[in-house]
């Protein structure tokens, strides 16, 4: 649990202030080991393929009928049959029009990416990163790792890869180089950091591999995925089984409790790996879905952050991003989040739609998700997946909040406790800006009919 980095909570509540998706050095008992079992292939034709376990993790064999060959096919877009097809050209323009984007949202994305490119480190051991790599937070570790991975996802979302020969190709190449340089040789864990950083970094590397088929990324990706799978809890208790908590390179955990938000990032990493043509054990997806389904709390009308009794009895019984994170991850796992059973959760998110780019205190931040770009990021993904009138309402609120708040430098100012934990400041607004850019890329970031585990 994170301490406040500004602002003093009511007496006795400091322990329940929001936690940041950044790095954390650990301790405490491990929550479990990886799930082994049958694997889902990258296409229906490969559904019966199986990965062979090996010491230290599963064998990540390529699905026999993966949609994309390692070498690009002449005259055909390598993204055509993938969920990334809307990131370029005519498909991108069509997606913007269909889902409510505009010239204004695209201009904001371009300015945000230009800002991130401008402040990226270009020299020394930190080359390619965002944030101060020398800072090791006593609680969260080296936060520059997670910040860099978020920025990579923002550039990839707009179609920039090391091989795209676009304006920011070199930026992405440097950033990937930095992330790979931080990977622990033995465990495959990215950076001296927590499960958030590793999950987001794995997600970024997997997505880049899916987009580029760059074989040099595959060994690092396989190691990273093996570590994710090894850290999934197998404890025979529904409050634990199938989830992921704050794990670290050495396999230790900050505490034994899996978190909904951490679990969502791991699911997104595993899904991106599957989309790249690697096979991921069926049991891992199935267990994650069961964990997330059991995280819904009817009394809260929302998903729990975790099941720790002391948290559940506190003023901050859950954190708001847990609900849209769970909805989006469950949609990836095959759940119909537009159904009546998820109406309460959707209402929870919509009732907390952005209502201005301002911070009005920790209590509003937690209870109303006010001034919470991390919640807005997950809310955007979840509501986009839902679609229809609910998406229209969310999208209007998002644009009314973010577009006028962008600074003349292309960045969005740090706003909340998470930004402080991530070490955003006047000269480095990368965490906040990456989240806002990712939210405004949602119209074309994924082609939904192909974005699913099953």
When the domains are counted, the total is: 1
Rg value: 20 Å
Low-confidence spans: pLDDT under 50, at least 5 residues?
1-75
Listing every helix as H and every strand as E from the N terminus to the C terminus, the arrangement reads EEEHHHHHHHEHEEHHHHHHHHH
Kindly identify the CATH topology. Answer: Glycosyltransferase
Q: Can you count the helices?
A: 17
Mean model confidence by pLDDT: 86
Terminal CA distance reads: 34 Å
Oligomer: single chain
* Approximate shape: globular
Main sheet attributes: strand count, strand direction, barrel closure: 2 strands, antiparallel
Name of the CATH first level: Mainly Alpha
The CATH architecture term is: Alpha/alpha barrel
Label the structural class. Answer: mainly alpha
Strand-residue fraction? under 5%
Word description of this protein:
It is a single chain. The chain has 454 residues and is mostly helical. It has one domain: Glycosyltransferase (Alpha/alpha barrel), CATH 1.50.10. The chain contains 17 helices and six strands. It has helices at 89-99, 103-119, 144-157, 169-181, 195-212, 218-230, 260-275, 282-294, 309-312, 322-332, 343-350, 362-367, 373-386, 388-402, 417-421, 430-440, 442-445, and strands at 39-40, 53-54, 57-58, 280-281, 296-297, 302-303. A hairpin with a 4-residue loop joins strand 5 and strand 6 (302-303).
């Amino acid at each position: 649990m994170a301490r406040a980095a500004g602002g003093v909570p009511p007496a006795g509540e400091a322990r329940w202030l929001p936690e940041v998706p950044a790095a954390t050095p650990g301790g405490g008992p491990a929550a479990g080991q990886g799930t082994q079992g049958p694997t889902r292939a990258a296409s229906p034709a490969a559904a019966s393929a199986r990965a062979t376990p090996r010491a230290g993790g599963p064998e990540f064999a390529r699905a026999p009928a993966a949609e994309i060959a390692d070498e690009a096919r002449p005259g055909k877009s390598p993204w055509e049959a993938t969920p990334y097809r809307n990131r370029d050209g005519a498909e991108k323009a069509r997606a913007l029009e269909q889902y409510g984007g505009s010239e204004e949202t695209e201009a904001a994305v371009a300015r945000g990416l230009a800002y991130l490119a401008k402040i990226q480190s270009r020299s020394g051991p930190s080359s390619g990163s965002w944030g101060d790599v020398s800072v090791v937070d006593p609680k969260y570790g080296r936060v520059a790792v997670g910040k860099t991975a978020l920025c990579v996802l923002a550039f990839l979302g707009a179609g920039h890869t090391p091989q795209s020969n676009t304006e920011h190709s070199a930026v992405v190449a440097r950033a990937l180089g930095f992330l790979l340089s931080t990977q622990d040789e033995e465990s495959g864990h990215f950076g001296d950091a927590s499960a958030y950083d590793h999950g987001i970094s794995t997600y970024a590397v997997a997505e880049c591999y899916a987009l580029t088929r760059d074989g040099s990324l595959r060994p690092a990706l396989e190691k990273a995925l093996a570590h994710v799978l090894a850290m999934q809890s197998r404890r025979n208790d529904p409050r634990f089984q199938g989830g992921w908590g704050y794990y670290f390179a050495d396999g230790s955990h900050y505490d034994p409790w899996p978190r909904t938000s951490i679990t969502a990032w791991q699911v997104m990493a595993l899904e991106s790996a599957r989309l790249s043509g690697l096979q991921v054990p069926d049991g891992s997806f199935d267990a994650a879905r069961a964990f997330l389904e059991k995280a819904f709390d009817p009394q809260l009308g929302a998903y729990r952050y975790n099941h720790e009794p002391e948290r559940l009895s506190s003023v901050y019984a859950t954190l708001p991003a847990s609900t849209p994170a769970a909805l989006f991850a469950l949609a990836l796992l095959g759940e119909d989040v537009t159904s009546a059973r998820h109406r309460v959760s959707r209402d929870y998110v919509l009732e907390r739609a952005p209502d201005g780019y301002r911070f009005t205190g920790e209590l509003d931040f937690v209870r109303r998700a006010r001034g919470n770009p991390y919640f807005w990021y997950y809310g955007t993904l979840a509501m986009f997946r839902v679609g229809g009138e609910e998406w229209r309402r969310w999208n209007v609120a998002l644009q009314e909040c973010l577009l006028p708040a962008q600074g003349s430098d292309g960045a969005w100012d740090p706003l909340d406790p998470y930004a402080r934990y991530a070490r955003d400041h006047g000269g480095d607004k990368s965490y906040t800006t990456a989240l806002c850019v990712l939210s405004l890329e949602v119209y074309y970031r994924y082609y939904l009919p192909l974005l699913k585990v099953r």
